[in-house]
């Protein structure tokens, strides 16, 4: 009997595992094995190493699903031997040696750039790092558009910042070169220019790309469509 594939949902910047909640619940209800590990958002290499370690501790095949910055994380972490595929959701499909800033820099700025806050955080034995977060008052319209108003308020004040270092760090690998991959474009995304998503997916030669008239947190607004897409990717793997 074939081993069951575990779906590992990887959240992005300015969010945590709760951003995946509607998709997580539906996948669990449909009998899938699911994990939603926390990502520290401190460095691309460190975050990817952690997600890779999570995958490697799973007994059996793993499908990595990454949202936004989580797409960059699975690009690097996906080289783990038991990772059998990647699903990008409004995500960064980086090339090896490329940073988020470099990929995003080739396209007009999204509304996010004008609504960021920068704050120092302590680093042991070195210069202070810089945390990047979204202005709380702008969060519902820029990052959480389409999400229930009360939920958006909670997400705004509980967001997990992204280290500026992670934004500029080059990807150490591009797992899509060796692993099958699929992608979802959020056509109404105000956080990432949708053309960043389209360009990365086309360059990576993804097996299938689905466009949704959806905002950045498409997991919150279109969970049924995402679950169907993830299940289609699993079926494609055989």
TrEMBL record:
Domain of life, per lineage: Bacteria
Family annotation (Gene3D superfamilies): alpha/beta hydrolase
Signal peptide limits: none
One Pfam entry name: Abhydrolase_6
Annotated InterPro entries: AB_hydrolase_1 (IPR000073), AB_hydrolase_fold (IPR029058), Sec-Metab_Biosynth_Hydrolase (IPR052897)
Domain AB hydrolase-1, chain residue ranges per copy: 7-228
A GO term, aspect molecular function: catalytic activity
PANTHER family, per the entry: AB HYDROLASE-1 DOMAIN-CONTAINING PROTEIN-RELATED (PTHR37017), ESTERASE_LIPASE_THIOESTERASE DOMAIN-CONTAINING PROTEIN (PTHR37017:SF11)
Protein name: Pimeloyl-ACP methyl ester carboxylesterase
Species lineage: Bacteria, Bacillati, Actinomycetota, Actinomycetes, Streptosporangiales
